[in-house]
Write a structure and sequence with these properties.
Blueprint lengths: L1 H14 L2 H18 L6 H26 L10 H8 L3 H12 L2
Helix pairs in contact: 1-2, 1-3, 4-5
């Protein structure tokens, strides 16, 4: 799952918070468990992971299109970008603002 690693690196690059990156990873893993279909065949499970991977790559493409190919954002829009992706947006916003002095 390369796409989730890109997203975790993006969260870390924009917050410099290992905790937030770990929480993002836990959220991803937890969502696979919670939203994964129970009692499926191997083929159905493979399809589920393929759909999940495609959704993650769509998010990566959205970020790359919106903010450029670099992981680290140069503008004050970092808190907004994190708000879109992370359930702990308020904390991420506070961390970004405190580090950028805005």
């Amino acid at each position: 799952m390369t796409a989730i690693r890109v997203l975790i690196a993006w969260v870390y690059s924009n917050t410099k918070s290992v905790l937030l990156a770990q929480l993002f990873h836990a959220f991803s893993t937890g969502s696979l468990v919670v939203f994964g279909p129970p009692r499926v065949t191997a083929a159905q499970e493979s399809l589920w992971y393929a759909v999940y991977a495609a959704a993650l790559w769509l998010v990566v493409a959205l970020i790359a299109t919106t903010f450029g190919k670099r992981l680290a954002l140069q503008s004050a829009e970092a808190p907004l970008a994190i708000t879109i992706l992370h359930p702990f947006a308020t904390l991420a916003r506070e961390v970004c603002l405190s580090r950028h002095g805005s």
